[in-house]
Amino acid sequence: MPTSAPPSNRFERRRAETRGALVRAARQILAETGDTSASIQAIAERADVGFGSFYNHFESKAELFEVAVVDALEEFGQNFDERLAEIDDPAELVAAGFRLSARMADSHPELMQVLRRRGLGHIHSDNGLARRARRDLQVGIASGRFTTLDPTVALSALGGTLLSLVELRFARPDVDGDEAAVNLAEMVLRMLGIPPDDAHEVARRPLPDLA
C-alpha cells in the first residue's frame, strides 16, 4: 500500500495502524465481491479492530470505500513509477503501462480486482494512475510525439482501454494476456498519432525488469 511519513509517537502509530487495517479490509471486500453493503461491524471484524474505532477515522462506509479505492489506485500508480522510471519516451510509457497492467493481474490480483470493479469512476481523478497518465499525455502532446489535441479525451480512451484489458485478464484467463496487452498498446499508440510501423515497434520493446 502507499507509504507516507511514519507517525511520530505511539498514539499516532496505533491510530495509523487502525486506519490502515480498515482500509485494507475495505480493499479486500472490494476485490472479492465489489459489494459495499457489508456492515461496519463486519468490516471492523475483518480489520480486527473495535467497532467504535471505525468512527474515529471515517464518517461513513461510503467514505471508507472511497479511500480504499484511492489507496489502491495510488499503489497502482506507484508500481508504475518504480518500474517504468527509466523510460523517457511517452509512447513507450503508454505501451509499457498496458503490458505491466496485464502482468499485474497475476502478481497483484487484489489490487487489479479493485481497479476492475471501481476504476471507471476514477479515470479522470486527480490521483493514482490517472494523474500520471494525464502527465504523460501532456508531455507527449507538447513534444509532438502524440498528435492528439485534447488530453482529457485521450485519457478517456486510455482509461477505458486499460479497464477493458483488466476485465479481459480476469474474464478470459485462457487468452494470452501479454499478447493482448501488446496488441492493445499498438492500437492505442496509433490512435494517439504514432505512425503504424513506429507503434508496432514501440509496443514490443523489451520491458524493464519487473521482478
UniProtKB/TrEMBL annotation:
Q: Which UniProt keywords apply?
A: DNA-binding
In this entry, the residue ranges of the DNA-binding region are 39-58
Mind telling me which Gene3D superfamilies this protein's record contains? Tetracycline Repressor, domain 2
Q: Which residues constitute the signal peptide according to the record?
A: none
Q: Indicate the segments forming the HTH tetR-type domain, all copies.
A: 16-76
Respond yes or no to whether keyword DNA-binding is given for this record.
yes
Please report a single Pfam family linked to this protein.
TetR_C_40
Q: Which InterPro entries match?
A: Homeodomain-like_sf, HTH-type_TetR-like_transc_reg, HTH_TetR, Tet_transcr_reg_TetR-rel_C_sf, TetR_C_40
A single Gene Ontology molecular function, please?
Answer: DNA-binding transcription factor activity
What is this protein's name? TetR/AcrR family transcriptional regulator
| Organism name | Streptomyces muensis
